[in-house]
Batch of 2 targets.
Target 1
Amino acid sequence: MIQRRVGIMGGTFDPIHIGHLILGESAWEQFHLDKVLFMPSGNPPHKTQRRGASNEQRVEMVKRAIRSNDHFELSTAEMHEQGYVYTKETLKRLHAEHPDTEYYFIMGADSLLTFDTWMSPQEICDQCILIAAVRDQMSTAELDQAIVKMRAQYHADIRKLESPNLDISSHTIRNRCLRGESIRYYVPDAVREYIQNEGIYGNQQST
């Protein structure tokens, strides 16, 4: 019997930003989730050449970003430096540990367009409900088309998230730091101060 509904927000969070938090909050509200796990990847399979904050720094930024929200929780389930961790493996482990929980995997709509390249997409669809939100200028019509395709291809339970589409990316924030530009309001103040104090992304004069 399903007793809990838990959302999963995965990603590198390099750094975590306001867009991530709004996405998590919107999913919690719309789908009546008990909580949302923010799950930074230790060694993401699709970003083998990633440069930026260390694992420890990314975890600390997530902690600072979500600490005022009682239904947000940090999960280090994918923080394994020894090798890649795939979504299907994480979901399998979570189900074994919490068989009474239904998992909602939250993603930006852009991820749907590359979902075929993920490791074992069918296994992912079999183990969770997918939640997709419009982002990065993708139209609602394009999102609807991608959802129809995935439902047909994988028999996926995929649902559309109604959430503000903020055109913010971690890549943009890192570049603003390098140029000495302000990232105020792009990230929570506690994260901005940590980035500045640690000198994580280069020139921090105007953060």
Target 2
Amino acid sequence: MATNYIGLEKFDSLISLVSYFKDNKTCKDFLVGQRWSDGDYICPYCGQHHCYRRADGNFRCPNCLKNFSVLVGTIFENTKISLVKWFMAMYLISSHKKGISSHQLARDLSVTQKTAWYILHKVRTLFGQGNDVELADNVECDEAYIGGQEKYKHASKKTEGTQGRSLKTKTPVFGMAQREGKIVAKKTSNVQGKTLCGIINQFVKAGSRIFTDEYIGYNTLVESEYTHSVVNHGAKQFVDGDSHTNTIEGFWSQLKRSIFGIYHFVSAKYLQRYVDEAVFRYNTCKQDESDRFKKMFLKSIGIVRYDDVINVA
């Protein structure tokens, strides 16, 4: 018997969300409908189809004889936080244009800041950029350096030689933006030409046109399988015909405003997650709140545990 399926597009505002999800049972029934809309309950442990539902609302596998909840295999597995609050948090995170801080989320959900931080980072694991993304045609490439705001430090605490591309107090992020398309951005250990060109080769289709600034690290692209166009920022040249890097620089501006304005500080350890979140927002900027919530919610039906939140590469 098919499970009652409710489309995620129904929830186009926070009011519509909280009006429908009044308790944990409603949330669990909704998850059942999303995971197994055809009524074929699949065991998350052995993959057996046609498991049966028990009287208490959980399921039992006829093959491995294990009992399981609809939460097994989702980001909500083993949670002690109300599912209503989880759903509200996911909607708030997906709808805020520049993100939401753990302190603000804690106030909105009436939870501790530590709990809100955990929810935020668990949801951010859903934003991870795949390695199968392919950019093509006209692609702008540039690096950004996050952290190291020396001008705000006391003179006795400032670090010398941190200007420009210095990595003494900053973490580099390399970004690629396909014009009228998607963005890919990755934290890197350095900005050497070999590193940057390796990332370009991984994500940009051969034969594409690459636009960069005059940084020497891109010089090897001249002899590669890409057409390379350069704008000389050092000489105050920012546009030369159709050659510019304004698209990717606009993304850097959004990322930095989000970090400095909302989060205030981001450690190098978790930086990639904040970058992934910014990329998700940019790549879905033309979608409305319900579409972004739907995309995030469908990705939530995967295994993400506490270790995945705390331990990052």
